[in-house]
Amino acid sequence: MVEALVCEMRRAHPRWGASRIAYEIRRTRTEPAPSRATVHRVLTPNGLLRAQEHQHRRKYKRWQREAPMRLWQLDLVGGIYLADGRECKLLTGIDGHSRFVVIAEVLAAPSGRAVADAYVRAMPAEVLFERVWENSIEAKLTKTYSPTTTGKNERWHRTLRRELLDGCGPFASLAAAQAAISEWVHAYNRLRPHQTLDKATAP
Question: I need a surface site. Which of 41, 118, 142, 166 has the fewest CB within 10 A?
């Protein structure tokens, strides 16, 4: 019975991993739910596990902080296409403690000024960017061509592509692209169960 349910949920939601499936079963059923390891063991012989999910995780230095708002990981990613043929960039920012997405702004031209303005808009209070940068913000630059140092961003970018961008065509306008991404980010931040919160949703 449990095996059939696990397989059914995986086929219905092919992007859900063992941890998410175990969570959803526990959330919607009263009887004891299978553990993540049990779900994993069910998926493997049924051919429902992608090859990369078998790989062991390598260890890297983690840019983790003990409390929210101590570190934001910022990155720029392309692949936001508009109907007129333009490719825009997405400025992303993730809190180093909670993994809450604090910035997801589509930029037509990713200049230094555009990035700074987007950063200021994401701050929880009105600030003068130059004053804050000089007095209380320390920039930590990552090495070029080293995506593992911004692993939270890279993983989030992959999730965004799989769950939103890969399934839609070019956006009608920059505003339409921003609206779709903002809606998805809201669901990601507020409705999605997070591992770092013991599968709870963000407050």
Answer: 166
DSSP string, 40-52: HHHHTTTT-S-GG
Is 181 among the domain residues? yes
Burial class (CB in 10 A: 0-12, 13-18, 19+), 22: buried
State how far the Cα of 64 lies from the Cα of 98, in Å rounded to an integer.
Answer: 9
pLDDT in tens, 47-103: 887 655 555 455 545 556 667 877 888 899 999 999 999 999 999 999 888 888 999
Verdict on whether the full-model pTM lies above 0.85: no
Nearest to 8 by CA among 53, 31, 39: 39
Instruction: Say which range, 19-28, 49-58, 112-121, has the weakest mean pLDDT.
Output: 49-58
- Domain extent at residue 170: 72-197
Sheet of 72-81, strands arranged across: 72-81, 87-95, 101-107
Give the integer Cα–Cα distance in Å for 103 and 129. 15
Same domain, 86 and 184: yes
Domain identity same for 127 and 76? yes
* The token pair that represents 10 in the structure block: 């995986």
Residue-wise pLDDT tens digits, 134-176: 555 555 555 555 555 567 888 899 999 999 999 888 999 999 9
Asked whether residue 50 falls in the same domain as residue 130, the answer is: no
As a residue count, the chain comes to 203
Residue 92 and residue 10 in one domain: no
